[in-house]
Design brief:
Helix content is about 25%, strand content about 35%. The protein is α+β, with helices and mostly antiparallel strands.
Length: about 180
């Protein structure tokens, strides 16, 4: 048995878990999430806690822990939600929200527009901070990664889109190499 999988998931007030054969539905104040489970896993709710256990005696350690982590993220998402913060760095680089769309001006000849998928919302703080929020942790991370991939920070000037708190190691460039050779 997995050590992570054995841990019960506490259900906050207002969160309801329903299980149908191989599908789990988690409903909470922020919304509803569904996930199909592997047939080797079973779920049960006891004393306000969600328990995951393997059906057969086979060792499903990794699958057991994965299932528990996915269900814990679903419970967290419908109760509190998830968000990723991105930062736009560079002279003339900026982000703005037009209606529901996110419009980025990051050094291309045209602004880049991105529509949020259902369940995701964008917020722009100032002209250089983007907040991607939603209840599905996987979807929030995927959308944030797509925004970052539009223009990743380059390693010479550090201009582009990065996660807040991410460090970009800058290379010295040609001037640094030329000075090192003269000595």
């Amino acid at each position: 048995m997995s050590r992570v999988g054995r841990l019960p998931i506490p259900l906050p007030a207002g969160v309801v878990v329903e299980t149908n054969e191989n599908e789990v539905v988690v409903k909470g104040p922020k919304g509803e999430l569904r996930r199909a489970l592997d047939p080797a896993m079973s779920t049960s709710v006891k004393d306000g806690k969600l328990l995951i256990s393997p059906l057969s005696g086979d060792d499903h350690g990794a699958l057991h822990g994965l299932t528990r982590a996915l269900l814990a993220n679903m419970v967290e998402g419908v109760s509190n939600g998830f968000e990723r913060l991105l930062e736009v760095v560079g002279v003339g680089y900026r982000a703005q929200k037009v209606g529901e769309k996110l419009v980025l001006q990051v050094g291309f000849t045209h602004p880049v527009e991105m529509s949020p998928p259902s369940g995701i919302s964008f917020a722009v703080e100032g002209t250089n901070r983007i907040k991607v929020a939603g209840i599905d942790k996987e979807l929030v991370g995927e959308v944030a990664a797509k925004i970052r991939a539009i223009r990743r920070c380059d390693s010479y000037k550090g201009k582009g889109v990065k996660y807040v708190g991410e460090t970009v190691r800058l290379k010295p460039g040609k001037a640094g190499r030329a000075a090192a050779k003269k000595k």
